[in-house]
């Protein structure tokens, strides 16, 4: 049997065994949640935007939606009832929900590769029904273009079947896209890929250990996922990246000739608005107000990464022993297998007012605060871009997937971060925090503030991201 066909048969078999819950039809939203039921002129066009239902994907998609809305497009945001963001409709900005019948518990029990396949399968029927409904609404303006997360690769085939243009939006770095491609095409799924310092051919300075490998029980599905998301993004009417030519020109230049349509690097999208799934704890800001300038290390590992209790212990004591003020985001599901953060007992008493732990922070506001001097991050692409936009240097501790590639860019290419060992250890934490906040970190802080200016320039009139956005808008107007 042909390898792809075999994989697809395997996946179908696997999904049939997982999809025990019936897929509920799309639930229409009450009218109060719709900005307008019908789209009428004078909008420049009607765009439907659909994200992968995780914070790191939702945030840039909503930013893109707001940017395009401000340029005269009618926007319909589609989200899943699973992990729904808190969004308010407004004139010309409509919100639709599709129902998946997927519980948080079920999703949590799946590995990351399994989850992406299940979500692609589960979303297809209700998303299709919604698209058909939007297309046939009486008196409405038909959808002119779909903009969907590259990871939601099923939308490419669907758009082709429905005769609608689709643009893919890749919310992570373009270098990581090349890393994924290399894993699949060259079969780099081995131990070496996880540990070796050797440079990946044609991808320098990425080392084998920086490749965006994801630990999974299903390596064949991982390979299928990569091939689906890359080939379908490359086949889309356009591929949009939340990055800038000023940050990643070499990778973008390698991707452009592989794509059927144009590639637009329009980022970093960095509007101040929030689209958090979790409630932001605003006491961070009043606490930061009490700290000296550039004295605090902000510590957060994004919305997905899970740690074990021994890692939490090392992080906690490393931060405490550094003697520097810290603001640490400890999500309620941060510790694998437990519903509690598992901080060491007596830890907060010992730290006193020198540390603040919250479940979720208003991250962009935190990074922009004058008291923050460094960001200890897992190098999620949004965190990376937000730190660059704030000119804050990073301590890099990538956990999985694109984060490893991003860490290499931060530390080696842009020189605005310090690489940490994979095994977290309190002595190293203490040393890196001090290094970033004290005199030794001065050069890195200077580079971070230079990089901030470079990125700002690319977003300003005549800059590469500015021009890319204008070209994207022109293409969208002609859809
Ligand atoms: C995931 C992947 O890990 C990431 O590498 C990929 O690029 C996108 O999907 P995540 O792990 O959540 O995302 O990290 P990141 O990309 O940094 O996104 C997290 C987002 O949540 C950021 O926009 C950040 O501002 C926000 N956030 C995080 C908060 O608003 N408050 C917090 O307390 C923590």
TrEMBL record:
The keyword Glycosyltransferase applies. SUPFAM superfamilies: UDP-Glycosyltransferase/glycogen phosphorylase (SSF53756). Gene3D superfamilies: Glycogen Phosphorylase B. Signal peptide: none annotated. One of its GO terms (cellular component) is cytoplasm. Transmembrane segments: none annotated. InterPro entries: UDP_glucos_trans. Keywords: Glycosyltransferase, Transferase. GO terms for molecular function: quercetin 3-O-glucosyltransferase activity; quercetin 7-O-glucosyltransferase activity. PANTHER family: FLAVONOL 3-O-GLUCOSYLTRANSFERASE UGT76E12-RELATED (PTHR11926:SF1494), GLUCOSYL/GLUCURONOSYL TRANSFERASES (PTHR11926). Belongs to the UDP-glycosyltransferase family. This is Glycosyltransferase. It comes from Amborella trichopoda.
């Amino acid at each position: 049997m042909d390898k792809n066909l075999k994989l697809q048969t395997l996946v179908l078999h696997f999904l049939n065994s997982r999809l025990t819950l019936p897929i509920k039809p799309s639930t229409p939203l009450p009218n109060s949640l719709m900005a307008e039921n019908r789209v009428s002129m004078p909008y420049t066009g009607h765009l439907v935007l659909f994200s992968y239902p995780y914070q790191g994907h939702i945030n840039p998609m909503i930013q893109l939606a707001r940017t395009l809305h401000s340029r005269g497009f009618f926007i319909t945001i589609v989200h899943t009832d699973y992990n729904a963001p808190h969004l308010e409709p407004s004139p010309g900005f409509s919100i639709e929900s599709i129902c998946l019948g997927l519980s948080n518990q079920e999703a949590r029990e799946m590995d990351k590769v399994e989850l992406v396949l299940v979500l692609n399968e589960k979303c297809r029927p209700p998303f299709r029904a919604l698209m058909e409904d939007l297309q046939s609404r009486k008196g409405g303006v038909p959808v002119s273009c779909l903009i969907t997360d590259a990871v939601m690769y099923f939308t490419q085939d669907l758009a082709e079947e429905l005769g609608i243009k689709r643009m893919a939006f890749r919310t992570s770095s373009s270098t990581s896209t090349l890393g994924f491609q290399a894993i699949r095409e060259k079969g780099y799924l081995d131990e070496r890929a996880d540990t070796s310092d050797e440079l990946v051919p044609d991808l320098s300075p990425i080392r084998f250990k920086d490749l965006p490998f994801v630990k999974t029980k299903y390596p064949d599905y991982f390979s299928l996922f990569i091939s689906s998301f890359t080939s379908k993004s490359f086949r889309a009417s356009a591929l949009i990246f939340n990055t800038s030519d000023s940050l990643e020109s070499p990778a973008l230049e390698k991707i452009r000739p592989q794509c059927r349509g144009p590639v637009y690097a329009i980022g970093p999208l960095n509007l101040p608005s929030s689209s958090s799934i979790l409630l932001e704890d605003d006491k961070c800001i009043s606490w930061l107000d009490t700290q000296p300038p550039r004295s605090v290390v902000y510590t957060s590992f994004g919305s997905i990464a899970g740690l074990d209790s021994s890692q939490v212990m090392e992080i906690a004591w490393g931060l405490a022993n550094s003697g520097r003020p810290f603001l640490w985001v400890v999500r309620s599901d941060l510790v694998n297998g437990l519903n509690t953060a598992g901080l060491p007992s007596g830890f907060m008493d010992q730290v006193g007012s020198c540390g603040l732990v919250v479940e979720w922070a208003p991250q962009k506001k935190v990074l922009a605060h004058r008291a923050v001097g460094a960001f200890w991050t897992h190098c999620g692409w949004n965190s990376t871009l937000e730190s660059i936009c704030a000119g804050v240097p990073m301590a890099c501790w990538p956990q999985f997937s694109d984060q490893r590639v991003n860490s290499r860019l931060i530390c080696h290419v842009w020189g605005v971060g310090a690489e940490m060992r994979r095994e977290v250890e309190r002595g190293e934490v203490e040393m890196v925090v001090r290094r970033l906040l004290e005199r030794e970190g001065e050069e890195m802080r200077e580079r971070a503030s230079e990089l901030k200016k470079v990125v700002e320039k690319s977003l300003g009139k005549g800059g590469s991201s500015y021009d890319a956005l204008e070209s994207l808008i022109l293409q969208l107007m002609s859809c």
